[in-house]
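Hello,

Our lab assistant flagged a job as stuck in the queue for most of the afternoon. It eventually completed. Since we weren't sure the result was trustworthy after the delay, we are filing this so someone can double-check. Below is the sequence as submitted and the structure that was eventually returned. Let us know if re-running is recommended.
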Amino acid sequence: MNRAEKAALQLQAVAVLRMLKETRTYEELSDVTGLPAGDLNRYVNGHVLPGTDRASEVVESVGREALADELVARVEFDDEGYVDNSGVVFDQSFLDLVAPVAAETFAFESPDVVLTAATDGITLGAAMASFFDARLAYAKKSKETAVEEFIESRQRLASGIELTYYLPASAVDAGDTVLVVDDLIRSGETQELLLDIALQADADVTGVFALIAVGDEGMDRARAITDAPVGALTTFE
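-- returned structure --
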């Protein structure tokens, strides 16, 4: 890890600790992290940065649990099981914290392109692309007028509806490494189409990540297509 990477990790840990401190005393934060309250005070107030070992632990273990808890608190389900995650996907600062935690937790290799689906996946995709210093590409259900060449993927759903996604062919090059991300994975149909687009582009998939998994069907479907890591920040049964 070079100096810039160490500094980025330390700042990410501080951002996670500051988020946790918003609803906790330093003593409570100490119980969560296992770190002394005095040290936490200095980290949160910017007087000193945590060492790289401590920073890695905060981002990878404490960070994932804390962000998952925050995510659960922000997500709502209606009586028919539909998910309202607007409290998450509209909060870019929260998503910016998710990106390093996801990268550390699931050991995603740094991609050339982060690929997602419009529209709710775009803010998460932007956070992941910014963290990895990668390009962001998002597939849409309609073609853009000025674009001549598209990669197209379609399938007929169990309901009989045909789902089609289009991505400008120039968005992903042959040989690119691609991380597929989305805000929600339930049946896995959208992720299957995104993976198909990546494969049509002759790209290498480095992973599949979702903020929320509802059940195991979608995750299992993605794992059947790629050997790359597949993970979600939190899972609802």
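-- support follow-up --
The delay was a queue issue, not a problem with the job. The result is valid. DSSP finds nine helices and nine strands in the chain. The longest strand covers residues 204-214.
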